[in-house]
Amino acid sequence: MHAFIMAGGKGIRLRPYTTALPKPLVPIGDQHAILEIVMRQLASSGFTKVTLAIGHLGHIIRAYVGDGTQWGLDVDYAVEENPLGTLGPLVLMKDRLPEHFLVLNGDILTSLDYRAVLTAHSAGTAPLTIATHPRQVSIEFGVLTTTEGQVTEFREKPKLAYQVSMGVYGLSRATLDPYTPGLPLGFDELVLDLLKHGTPPASYEFDGYWMDIGHPEEYDRANTEFAVYRDILLGE
Question: Considering the domain 2-131+165-234 in this protein, what is its CATH number?
């Protein structure tokens, strides 16, 4: 089983923590880098091959991860010379990828079973499977619906429920065939193209622990919660 980890971003939203370190290597719980936790989870789920897409401060990631033998993994690298979006690096190296594989961001903490996502994708017919998580957004205002200058509906500070992308996907190599190597490709562009062509992605719904570490407040929360979720995240 093959996983492709996106680890080439600059982590601008997480500054100043990412001034000297790439975001996947910021420490969690004073002992483990985010990327280390992900690599351990992949190994325990049965993955044997990992490709890391690196760019900004990529030499530090390469020095830290090496060839992956410390986790029993075979690791290689896709070097992003120019920003290619979320999925652009995959198009460049699609010939080196298996028929079905896992794609994930290198800055998430979750108890999601990565193997289960890839297994579900491989067993289905969708070109893309998106791991999704329920989220509620609280609106701090009274929300009005108006028609021709009249209020037709009123809701006081409603909570809106959504399924959001977790940054984990099952993907088929053939899904990348229409795209040109070397050109940027965003996850949003791929999803919109699939919907436009009547080949919608599948959803793998998950309501367990998930944290997208994109902002300093989320990073602080992840460190605060790590003691509680340590055993789940590390399988100890």
Answer: 3.90.550.10
Token reading at 76 = 């290689």
Cα–Cα nearest to 71, from 169, 3, 121, 11: 3
The pair of three-digit structure tokens given for residue 96, joined into one six-digit string: 């080196």
Residue 143 neighbours by CB distance under 10 Å:
12
* Mean pLDDT computed over 186-202: 95
What pLDDT was estimated at residue 211? 86
Phi, psi of 51 (to 5 degrees): -110, 130
What pLDDT is attached to residue 9?
Answer: 63
Place of tokens 């044997």: 48
Identify residue 183 by its one-letter amino acid code.
L
Backbone angles phi, psi at 103, to 5 degrees: -125, 135
Amino acid 123: pLDDT: 95
State the Cα–Cα distance between residues 85 and 190, nearest whole angstrom.
11
Distance in angstroms between the alpha carbons of the first and the last residue of the chain: 23
Q: Which two tokens stand for residue 157?
A: 């500070």
- Give the domain ranges of the chain: 2-131+165-234
Is 42 within 8 Å of 141 (Cβ atoms)?
no
Tell me the pTM.
0.86
Question: What torsion do the CA atoms of 75, 76, 82, 84 make, to the nearest 10 degrees?
Answer: -70
**Are residues 211 and 221 in contact, defined by beta-carbon separation less than 8 angstroms?**
yes
Residues 202-229, buried b or exposed e (16+ Cβ, 10 A)?
A: eebebeeebbbbbeeebbeebeebbeeb
pLDDT of residue 236: 58
